[in-house]
Predict the structure.
Amino acid sequence: MKHIFTQSLLAATVLSSTALAGSLETIEIPWSQTNRLGASCCSWSGLGSYGGGSYTNTQNCASVYGSCYQSKGAALWLFDLSDLPEDAIVSSASFKGVTEYSDMGGNTTFSVKPTGQALSTTLAYSVMNSPSWSSNTYMWGGNFSFSIPASQIEAARAEGGLAVFMYVSSTSGVNVMNSWPGGARLSVVVDINSPVGACCLSSGYCAQVPQNMCESGTDTTFHGAGSICAEGSTCPSDGCGGDVQGDGVVNVEDLLGVISRWGPCIACDEDLNADGAVDVLDLLTILDGWGQCD
């Protein structure tokens, strides 16, 4: 989930000094369960003993002179969405992965269904026969990505999980790799409210951006919610870390301000280290920066 952070990117994302700002972040969710819905030749049966491995297979049935020599199968995955941030708004989502070989592909039925259940034959039939959303497309071998409506992810978050069903009607078969990273996964783009403050690069350049954007960079330092860059887009002095009042001096007024907001506090100026609470760490910041700011 690391973003490539450059001076030009920071300059392009300078924001007004509001307490909170939306910031897009991509969250990659690995599967929690995977299995294969098997068949007796061309008639679906149930989940096998397969419970996860290096790949999950899907294929069509095949017969020669009326004799079946290959049974069909569908691939299923279950994703746990309980770790999605509660205040995040889902912007977009997709199911991503890679096939074992680049020539694997074919006409594909792709379906999803929000669920709070574990993978089972009953759930597999439910996703296959009565999905909450489904699409028919052609799957090319190699890396692939199937878009999923954001509304499906929101509904799945309420249920706790999302079941994914994939059936490729190719007699050659398709093996979707499960190894992480790069294997079968759910990629969710969310809009997260994050405190805005001064973000400094090792070069000394500064821009006011959301905390989560700053902290996803390399060699960046977030100076706290509500902190501002110095003149000429340079980093603020560390000696002003406790200047809650913003008057250029850390004194008793800043100390009293911190004490008055003691406890849980989201995106407030007194939360000097932006950890969601005004506590002894913020008090120590005041004491460390006591006096006239440099």
Summary: The first strand starts at residue 20 and ends at 30. Confidence is low (pLDDT under 50) at residues 1-19. The longest helix spans residues 150-159. Helices lie at 7-12, 121-129, 150-159, 211-215, 252-260, 280-288.
